[in-house]
């Protein structure tokens, strides 16, 4: 005797997972999505161009998230308050502990992460994402990895830094040509956009 429609559509109950394990698996799944996206982009564009495209996209996405967080948070003026925001964004799925903490730099060591088995370029995208996020609060802040498990280190280590003034450094203090080159090197634009902007800068700074 066949089953009725109601019987066939009855959902099968799934075992409940502890919240922390469920959150870990969700981020691991997102890590796999990043791997698939990265490989597809590398196959389509080549490794060098794909790295620029993915880095720029990750940095822009982090900047957008930072913009939303700025609307929810009161003034963030130092590393300590920014560190607490990152704790909610990045650490729920990491086993992390602080190595050092000061007004100029906070270093965090990670012994467990769902992205540990991913290709190194996935960590690069995560690094660009959070660097874009922290810079959206203040261009004088930066986020970077000094050690990465996918590159063979037993643990990851990331650092949140402020420039020597403890906050934003005025854009005018940096040579515009160097700043443009830095943005290109960090993947914020492709070669075509870089050369177009460079041409404009040369025109603006040429003697009349």
Structure description:
With 208 residues, the protein is of the alpha+beta class. It folds into 2 domains: 18-169, 2-Layer Sandwich (Muramoyl-pentapeptide Carboxypeptidase, domain 2), CATH 3.30.1380.20; 171-203, no CATH class. The chain has 7 helices and 4 strands, in the order ααααββαββαα. It has a 4-stranded antiparallel beta sheet. The longest helix is centred in the N-terminal third of the chain and has 27 residues, at 19-45. The N and C termini lie far apart (92 Å).
What level of helicity do the residues show?
Answer: 40-55%
Number of helices: 7
Oligomer: single chain
Low-confidence stretches: 165-173
Indicate the proportion of strand residues.
5-15%
Strand order of the largest sheet: 1-2-4-3
* Fold-level CATH name of the largest domain: Muramoyl-pentapeptide Carboxypeptidase, domain 2
Return the structural class.
Answer: alpha+beta
Named at the architecture level, the CATH assignment of the largest domain is 2-Layer Sandwich
The number of E-state strands comes to 4
Mean pLDDT: 76
Query: What is the overall silhouette?
Result: globular
Please tell me the total number of domains: 2
Terminal CA distance: 92 Å
CATH superfamily of the largest domain: Trafficking protein particle complex subunit 3
Rg, Å, rounded:
21 Å
